[in-house]
Design brief:
Pfam families: DUF5062. This is DUF5062 family protein. It comes from Aliikangiella marina. This protein has one domain: Up-down Bundle (Four Helix Bundle (Hemerythrin (Met), subunit A)). It is built from 3 helices and no strands. The chain is globular and about 35 Å long.
Length: 86
């Protein structure tokens, strides 16, 4: 797994956009008590279910890899000239 530039900021953006996507799909929004770990896992599973990202191998499903997948997903959704991709 190769670390990508601005991965932390991309993950934050992925959670923000992913939450909006989940709400549009009919899910309730995350509450203030929901941890980042719960948000990452929920969004990862939703995006895999909707076939927007490829699932990780079962032995690779951990927080670090899920965060990386979400960061890659949002990086592909952003326009090429977006500041987070520079």
């Amino acid at each position: 797994m190769k670390k990508i530039k601005n991965e932390g900021a991309l993950l934050k953006k992925a959670i923000e956009i992913g939450e909006k996507y989940a709400i549009n799909r009919g899910f309730k929004s995350f509450g203030g008590a929901d941890s980042a770990k719960e948000k990452v896992e929920s969004l990862y599973r939703l995006l895999v279910h909707d076939k927007l990202i490829q699932p990780l191998a079962k032995d690779q499903e951990n927080q670090l890899n899920m965060k990386h997948k979400l960061s890659l997903w949002i990086a592909k959704q952003l326009p090429d000239d977006h500041p987070l991709l520079k």
